[in-house]
Design a protein that fits this description.
Rossmann fold, alpha/beta, Arc Repressor Mutant, subunit A, 2 domains
């Protein structure tokens, strides 16, 4: 359950879990949030791998990560956290103006994304907004999100693929592109992913379908009726 403005006025302080790779930024954020008085910093650490198992147990309403932890984890750990704690608000700060990284963070479950030039007041406002369940992002990157959704919606096949093989939604999206002969690089560009992410999904598809290569993926999904 996200917090309304009354939550802040009633004396209850939303708790924040900081996972920030930069020591200077980590200390500055902790001091900034504590100074404001309407946040409780419940945990501070430098590595997301060390924090994944403890975020849910901490009871934090907001998880803050920086660009270092985002790139180190490839957002996989973030997705695991948001799946285990669906009510937590994830905010990425000190980020690059990179549409691909922005979309990866959103797919992992983030609802907040602040660039490196964000001011202290913008950071505080963003944390408050995320605690209330509100999304925060630079307007020009938000436009990229709409474009990515439009592309992915047009590429999404029917639910038959998931029912037949237990594929994830992302894996389902790759099937028709593989059938069209797209390379990993082309699929990555089409779905705004990294090539390594595409390779990981392709390996997952082959394992679930029982295929040894891309051609068998096409043949098996077409034989099952999942690919038309």
């Amino acid at each position: 359950m996200k917090y309304s403005p009354a939550h802040f006025l009633g004396g209850e302080m939303p708790s924040v879990f900081l996972v920030v790779g930069s020591r200077l930024l980590r200390e500055a954020l902790a001091n900034l949030l504590k100074k404001k008085g309407d946040f409780k910093v419940c945990r501070v650490c430098s590595c997301l791998a060390d924090a994944t198992a403890t975020v849910a147990a901490s009871g934090a309403e907001v998880l803050i990560l920086d660009s270092i932890t985002a790139r180190q984890s490839d957002c996989i750990s973030v997705a695991e956290i948001t799946e285990a704690s669906p009510n937590i608000g994830v905010l990425f700060i000190d980020m690059d103006d990179d549409p691909e990284l922005f979309l990866e963070c959103i797919r992992a479950g983030a609802i907040g994304y602040l660039l490196k030039d964000a001011s202290a007041s913008e950071v505080v406002s963003a944390v408050r907004a995320v605690a209330r369940g509100q999304a925060v992002s630079p307007p020009h990157l938000c436009r990229q999100l709409f474009r990515a959704f439009s592309r992915q919606f047009s590429a999404l096949p029917g639910a038959r693929t998931k029912l037949e093989f237990g594929l994830t939604r992302r894996q389902q999206q790759l099937i028709p592109l593989i059938a069209q002969g797209f390379t990993n690089k082309e699929i990555a560009a089409h779905l705004s992913l990294t090539e390594q992410t595409v390779k990981n999904h392709l390996r997952g598809i082959m394992r679930r379908v029982g295929a040894e290569d891309r051609l068998q993926v096409i043949d098996l999904t077409r034989l099952s009726g999942a690919l038309r």
